[in-house]
Each structure stands twice: as C-alpha cells, then as structure tokens.
Specification:
The complex is a heterodimer of chains A (487) and B (404). Chain A has an 8-stranded antiparallel β-sheet. Chain A has 16 helices and 18 strands. The radius of gyration of chain A is 23 Å and the shape is globular. Helix content of chain A is 34%, strand content 21%. Chain A folds into 4 domains: 3-101, Uridine Diphospho-n-acetylenolpyruvylglucosamine Reductase, domain 2 (2-Layer Sandwich), CATH 3.30.43.10; 108-188 and 198-230, Uridine Diphospho-n-acetylenolpyruvylglucosamine Reductase, domain 3; 232-346, Alpha-Beta Plaits (2-Layer Sandwich); 354-448, Alpha-Beta Plaits. Chain A is an alpha+beta fold. Chain A has helices at 14-23, 32-35, 61-73, 126-134, 151-156, 164-167, 245-257, 269-275, 278-284, 286-292, 307-323, 336-343, 369-382, 420-440, 450-460, 462-474; strands spanning 28-29, 54-57, 78-81, 98-101, 108-112, 117-120, 138-140, 172-178, 184-186, 220-230, 234-242, 263-268, 296-304, 328-330, 356-365, 391-397, 405-415, 444-445. Chain B has 404 residues and is an alpha/beta fold. Chain B folds into 3 domains: 4-122, no CATH class; 126-277, Rossmann fold; 285-402, 3-Layer(aba) Sandwich (Rossmann fold), CATH 3.40.50.1860. Helix content of chain B is 47%, strand content 8%. In chain B, strand 6 (291-295), helix 15 (309-316) and strand 7 form a beta-alpha-beta unit. In chain B, helix 14 packs across helix 15. The chains are: A alpha+beta (487), B alpha/beta (404). Chains A and B meet through helix 2 and helix 4 of A and helix 1, helix 3, helix 4, helix 6 and helix 17 of B.
C-alpha cells in the first residue's frame, strides 16, 4: 500500500472540484470520513446532527472571499467555524452546505501597546493570544471558554470573561467582513481611508454590532481589532460562603455599587464542587466535601496595576462583606480563576466532569437572582433531577452595572443523553425551563440557542422582524449559516 | 479489549474542546504546541482524536458503512502515542470516562483497529506482512529463529531453557534483528554483569510479545502469543522479566494481565531495573562521561506506564552527563513517529514526526539524543540523517556502559 491515500468519494462533483481549485486538493473534502467530524456537537440533544456537504479549510481572506462568492452564486449554505469548539449547535450545518473551517487563519497580526489594541484572525485561540500579549505586559479580555477556543469567536459571540464585572463583554473595536456578495465591509475606523488605525468607532451607526451575537449569520468575519487591557500585577480575593442566598446577593450588589471588583462570581455548591480538583473530591469523597461547602459562595476578585489601589479596594470589599452578617470568610489563595486573569488559558471544562452539561445562560438583573434559582431547582425536581445534586446556578454581575446587569447560568450537570430515557428527560426539562425563564422576565439570552429562538422570536415583535429584514438585505440568498438566529 | 460498540458512550461524550490537539501552555513553555503527529501533519479534524471519536460513532451507528482509502488513512496514520488521551483526561469527558474505566484512548484505537479487521477493512498490506512474519517466524521482522540468541554469545547469559536465573532478559524482535541496535542488548548485559545480576535469556524459544499484532488489530494472534509467552515465562522460573524494548514492556505490563495470571512475575523496563540497582548500591558509575544529552521519553514506557523519572535518575548517576529537557517532555513528550505500525506502513509520516522531535532535541543544545526503545531508536536515527542534524543518537545503556 502506498502512503498516498485517496480522498476520492463516489459523490465527487463539480462543486468539490471548484472548491479544490480555490483552496488546493487536500483542503476541500466531501468524504464521509471527514464530514462526520462536523455533524454534531455537545448540544446534539437539541440540534440534530447534520452532515455538511463539504468541508473547506481556508487560509486567507482571498480564499474566503472566493468561496463565499461561489457559494452565493450557487445558493450553497456556508457555516463558518473559527477554532472548532462549539457547544451549542451554532456551527452545525443544519441545512448542509459548506463548513468553512478557519482554524488555520490563526495569525496575531498586531499587538499595539500604544493604542492598547490587538488585531487577530478567526483561528487565534484564547491561550495563544494571552501568551503573546504577556510578552508585551498587556492582556486581552480572557474568556472563560476552554483555552483552545477561538478568542475571536468569543468576542464575536459576546462571551464571558474573567473580568466581565469590570471590563464588560464588548471588546471589539472594528472588523473586516466578507459579505455574501463577496464585498468586503470594514467597520469602525477601518472603513475610513487615512484613519490612523483600525481602532476607533467610525461615524454614524456602529456597524460592528450587526455582525456580533450571531454565528456568521450576516457575513464571514475574517479579521478584527479588539481591546487590550493592562496586565494586572497585583491581585487579591475576598470570598464568603452563605447558607442563605439573600446575603450573597446583597454583598454582590454592594460590591458592584462600590466598583471595586474585577470579577464577582456567585456560585452554588453543586457547581462549586465541579471546580474543585477531582483528585481532592475523589480522595475525600463527594459527600464529605459537600458537607464542608456552604450553600452558596460569593467570590470577589480584585486586580490592579497599582498595589496601593488594589489594597484599598480589597479593604473596601472586606468591609462590605463584614457589614453583611451570616457569611463565613473563605481563604481563596488556590482559586484557579484568579491566576487565569493574568496568565490565561487553562482549559476550563470542569463542569463536564460528570458528563453532559446542559446550561441556559442569559442576562437579567441581579435582584431577580433568587427567583431564577427557585425556577431552576423546582423545574429540575419536576423533571426528576435532584436540586441538591444535579441543578445549579451561577451569577456574574457585569459591567456596565446599569440595570444590575448580570450573566446567569442555570444548569443540569448530571445527565447522559446517550441513554434514550435521559435524553427525553433533558429535553423535557429544557422546554419547560425556557418558558418559565421567559415568563419570569430576562433582558435576553446569552447566545441564540436552538432551544430558545422559536419561543423567543414570538416575543420580539418588530425587533425580530427588523433583524430578519436586515438579514435579507445583507444575505438575500440566505446562505450565511441559515437556520441559526434568524430564519 | 472491548467491542467497538461498548465505546459508544465514551466517544459520544466528546465536546470537541480540542484538548486533544494542543498542549496546555502552562506545561510547555507558554506555547500551545501540537500534540498529535497525524493531526499536525494532515490538519483535517478527522485526523485528531475528536474526529476519530465521531468516526467511531458513525461506524457504530452505520453512518460509515463501507471501507475507503480515506478511512484507512485516518485510522492507520495514528502512532497511538496516547498524548491525546492524557490531555483529554485532564479536562474533558471522554478522557475522564476512560480514566475511570482504567483505560485510555489507546485502548479505543486498538479496539477500532480490531473492528476494522473484523469487518475486513484492515489492516494495511504492510501490516499484514508483519502478521505473516510473526506467524511464520515468531518475530515481526521475519528473521530466523536461530539468530535469536546470537547477540548474547560470550556475555554470560544463562540459557533459561536449561538452567535457572533470577532475571529473564527479554531482548524483543526489533532489538534482536536490527544490527544497528545490538549495543542496546550488549551494554545492558555489561551493566547486569557488573552488578552481579543472575540473568538469562530464552534464546531460540523467545517469541514476539505480539504487541504489534494487537496494535494493527489482530486480537487472535495476540491472544495466542500472549498465552504461550506467559506459559514460557512461568516455566522458566524467573522472578523478574527485564526488557530494553518499550513495546514489549508495555505489552507485558498492560495487556498480558488480561490474558492470564503472571503468577507474580515482575516486569521491569531496563531503566527501572538499573535505577533499582543504583538505589540498592549494587552498581556505581565512576568514569566521567562528559556529554550534554537530552532524553526522549518513549510513549510505551512513558505515557503508557508512567516511567519518567528512572531514565533521568540513571543518566544523572553518570558523572559528567548533563541532562537537558526538550520543551515537550515526560507526559508531554512528542512521539518519535514509529509506533503502531507507522514506520512500516507509512514511513513518510514516521519520518516527518521524527524530524519534528529532532528539531526539539537540537533546540536544547544537547550533543546526544538518548532514548530507551528500539523503535524510537530506529526512527530517531533515521530522522537525524533526514534532518542533516549533528546530533548523535545513543541508547541509555550505551552511556551507562561507558561509565563502568
């Protein structure tokens, strides 16, 4: 047997030939062996696996543009995939077409410490960028996603960060987008000839946001300039555990009002145990560890480039925590997230330790925290899960703090959907929970999950209709990741 | 050994976090380094462990229902180095599930290849030649049985078919039949003799461990040879088996216990055995060997079994030897490229993988690349030539023999 193996399939066609002419013979495939790797992700109980017709690995903007133009002429769906980590079905080609694998477009084009900006391609990972920035004494907004995830895609999809309570979740300044027509759109100051850099906002409505919050539904973003932040030399943590939720929420609210925290995490015991080292839990036994844990923990991370200011903020935080009774002070020297704020990039899939991890994330005010907790624990119980073991809540107050903006995650952590009975169970829980969360009231979903779009779009009224019109204007043949976010 | 269907739950739990594609920056000098030789070479998702999980799922579900060259390419271009498994078990469900079962991804890949053979979809022609050689000559290289004992002539080895000894030195097919590797055995013998070890060989009766059979998917051949070897070991009356071959070692250690009881016979890699001799003060290395070396961890003793410190301990016991670590070392070692039938069937993949390692070795400033596995030795020696490198390759016992 020669070491030259054929990629040839029975169904090779003119489309594949054209794709191969654009990207080279080994970078486009329609072989089932290659396609199956793209047909499902962790959210398969809610987004049915679906094979792409083609997978194309692109290496530069020129190739992207040619593929998009070709796809548009032939009305073939295109699903862009940045680094390939996808836990919510957003990159599953539910209508077939071309998966545009952009993993090899992974260059950091510029780290500009004077302007505090970085310009990157889609395949740049979180770890790659944080390591590169570290050499310059700066840091990007570090995502809470695994370190091999695309930081580019996280910025596009408005992710969660280790400094969300102080820096917020919007980190993109400008972008370059290949539209369905093949035109290249530049947002922010990129579009202005003679601008001193691709950094600032241009005049008129900001176009950058049109391409954020959806998985390539409006175009293929090939380059972005994002914000950088000073690398904090000093950090500290204040953590308190509570057996009731009210004081945890009160403390967090006061800390956010005082603007002293880089990040605040409110975590219940079921979730907290998944963040602990597995060997420790195995050694001590889960029950023994649970007995040590309070019902809810508030962890406040404080970082700064100036030691004195960090110490003042720490004192303020400690004072606020002491003013609210019933809490128990925790030493948090070993909490991983604190170190990651500056060092960045460990894979954080602790929540997957028990297997499948199902989560709904959304934005809502912190003062409704206990309502969401009750909804999740009760719904979990109604669907046969244990509120004491399986269901969990995470709340992270966000900047800007107006409206008590808070990121919430309601989870079920113990479920194996490869078992048909458990699959039905998680689907029932999910359907029920979405309605209850919407009825309770939220600002919006974290991501356009397949499970939420249908029921949410009905409540969106003209807003939803307007987004559909915009989509139709930009992508009249509906080739850009069709079936996701807008239909 | 499991049927492929039994892995359904494990492979279905892959979340494509891509831990199987790249190292953790905290472990490899603040850089995300590639960890999968075939994925790094062929780039498509199907070539990484996360892609292989989906291929297995699709084979079980019947979505992939016919053989193809592409399928063979993806499946047989894996060296089974196990790096993906180690990294996944730190962070993600499939690896963690395997760990709880006392398994690794290597078990999945072996069962996948057994399934390919059961379906008549594998192995590759070059692999079939190995299987035929084993069946016809009891060794993977087709060497004559009479040559098995030739290397040991005049070295004081006891014939364990006629007399007894404490230790059976199991040379292994590759070390025995590749003349370039003879020093691996003779220098090990020199160390044993200096330490006063009572040791012997099985000579003409030594047979292939059948690790290669298992790696390319022939379970029946593996089971037959493993059963015969275990009986032979018991009959020899030895307390300990020592081997310089990392492949034989991991096969005896990890795979044989599932076939039959070894009746308490201890299995040690030569590096473990010599480290023990040093600790028990049965041997001392006194001569100065001024040499900057870097040690390549063979997958089969490193990630497969966890022998990382012993080779370094014995190298440091040699006066004058300075050990420099490569950026990917111990559990994070880059594979030499030879394993799981790669060097035989896909020599270009083996070569490129080996050359990647040579570059890492050169970056340390070492003069000598040291290892402790005949397959690594063959592939790295060739890779040194192909890279036009000034590095010299030595087996670990060759260095020790210089210090006696």
């Amino acid at each position: 047997m020669s070491t030259e193996f054929s990629m040839k399939t029975a169904n090779e066609d003119a489309v594949l030939n054209t794709l191969r002419q654009i990207v080279g013979p080994t970078n486009a495939t329609s072989h089932i062996v290659d396609l199956v790797a793209y047909e499902k992700d962790q959210n398969w109980p809610f987004v049915n696996p679906h094979l792409p017709d083609y997978v194309v690995k692109v290496h530069n903007k020129k190739e992207v543009r040619e593929i998009v133009r070709f796809a548009n002429r032939n009305k073939i769906p295109i699903v862009p995939l940045a680094a390939g980590i996808n836990v919510r079905g957003l990159c599953i080609p539910t209508q077939g077409g071309i998966v545009l694998d952009m993993r090899d477009m992974n260059k950091i084009l510029e780290v500009n410490t004077e302007m505090m900006t970085v310009t990157i391609q889609p395949g740049v990972t979180s770890a790659q960028l944080s390591a590169a920035c570290r050499k310059y004494g700066v840091r990007p907004a570090l995502t809470s996603a695994p370190d091999m995830a695309s930081i580019f895609a996280n910025y596009l999809l408005i992710g969660l960060y280790h400094s969300s309570s102080s820096d917020g979740n919007f980190h993109i300044l400008s972008m370059e987008v290949v539209l369905a027509s093949g035109e290249i759109l530049k947002t922010g100051s990129r579009g202005l000839v003679g601008a001193p850099g691709p950094h600032a906002r241009g005049g008129g409505p900001g176009l950058t946001e049109l391409f954020m919050g959806s998985p390539g539904s409006f175009g293929v973003v090939t380059e972005m300039t994002a914000k950088l932040y000073p690398d904090p030399k000093f950090n500290a943590g204040v953590a308190y555990g509570y057996d009731e939720w009210e004081p945890a929420v009160e403390v967090s609210t006061k800390l956010m009002d005082a603007r002293v925290a880089t990040q605040i995490d409110i975590i219940d015991d079921n979730l907290l145990i998944t963040f602990l080292p597995t060997e420790m839990v195995d050694r001590m036994g889960e029950e023994a560890v649970r007995k040590m844990l309070p019902k809810v923990v508030m962890i406040c991370t404080i970082t700064d480039t100036i030691k004195e200011r960090m110490e003042v903020n720490k004192k303020v935080a400690q004072g606020i925590c002491k003013d609210v009774t019933e809490g128990k002070n925790f030493g948090i020297a070993s909490m991983g997230g604190l170190g990651e704020l500056s060092s960045g990039g460990r894979i954080t899939t602790g929540m997957l330790q028990k297997g499948y991890y199902h989560c709904f994330a959304f934005y809502a005010p912190l003062n409704k925290c206990i309502d969401y907790r009750d909804i999740n624990y009760k719904t979990a119980e109604e669907h046969g899960y244990s509120a004491d073991y399986d269901a969990s809540l995470l709340a992270i107050p966000q900047a800007p703090w107006n409206g008590q903006l808070t990121y919430y995650e309601l989870e079920v952590l113990t479920c194996d959907p490869t078992d048909p009975a458990q699959l039905k169970q998680i689907q029932g829980y999910s359907e029920d929970l979405v309605q209850k969360i919407l009825d309770c009231g939220i600002y919006g979903w974290f991501r356009p999950y397949a499970e939420v779009i249908d029921v949410t779009i009905d409540r969106w009224g003209t807003t939803g209709e307007f987004i559909k019109r915009l989509k139709n204007l930009v992508d009249p043949n509906n080739i850009m990741n069709p079936g996701k976010f807008v239909y | 050994m499991m049927e492929l269907e039994e892995w359904y739950n494990v492979v279905s739990s892959c979340v494509h976090c891509r831990a199987c594609t790249s190292s953790d920056i905290h472990m490899t000098g603040d850089e995300n380094l590639p960890i999968c030789p075939k994925g790094n070479m062929f780039k498509m998702e199907s070539f990484f462990a996360c892609g292989a999980h989906e291929i297995i799922r699709a084979m079980i579900e019947g979505e992939i229902n016919e053989n193809s060259e592409r399928l063979q390419h993806v499946i047989y271009s894996c060296t089974m180095c196990g790096y993906c498994s180690y990294h996944c078990e730190l962070y993600s469900p499939p690896g963690q599930k395997c760990k709880k079962m006392g398994k690794t991804f290597v078990d999945i890949w072996q069962d996948l290849r057994a399934d390919m053979m059961k379906r008549g979809w594998g192995p590759l022609e070059a692999h079939n030649a190995i299987l035929k050689n084993i069946a016809n000559t009891d060794n993977a290289w087709g060497g004559t049985r009479g040559d098995r004992e030739r290397w040991a002539k005049g070295l004081g080895a006891k014939d364990l078919n006629k007399e007894s000894a404490d230790v059976l030195y199991f040379a292994g097919c590759t070390t025995t039949y590749d003349p370039k590797l003879k020093a691996m055995m003779t220098t090990a013998a020199e160390v044993f003799n200096k330490a006063g070890v009572s040791w012997g060989i099985l000579g003409k009766n030594e047979k292939c461990c059948a690790g290669p059979s298992l790696r390319v998917g022939d379970r029946d051949q593996f089971k037959a040879y493993a059963g015969e070897n275990i009986e032979l070991f018991k009959k020899s009356g030895v307390k300990t088996i020592v081997t310089s071959c990392a492949g034989c070692y991991s096969t005896f250690k990890n795979e044989y216990p599932a076939i039959a009881e070894m009746d308490g016979i201890e299995v040690l890699h030569v590096t473990e055995f010599i480290a023990r001799l040093i600790k028990e003060k049965k041997i001392e290395f006194t001569k100065e060997v001024p040499m900057k070396v870097t040690y390549h961890d063979p997958c089969h003793i490193g990630r497969y079994v966890g022998v990382f410190e012993e080779p370094r301990t014995i190298l440091r016991a040699v006066p004058g030897v300075e050990v420099r670590e490569m950026i990917q070392n111990k559990r994070n070692s880059w594979c030499c490229g030879a394993g799981a039938g790669m060097r035989t069937a896909l020599p270009d993949v083996a070569s490129e993988t080996g050359q990647h390692r040579i570059k890492q070795a050169e970056d340390t400033g070492a003069e000598v690349l040291v290892s402790s596995c005949p397959f690594c030795a063959q592939n790295l020696m060739d890779a040194i030539k192909e890279s036009d490198s000034d590095l010299k390759f030595m087996d670990i016992t060759e260095i020790l023999a210089q210090a006696l």
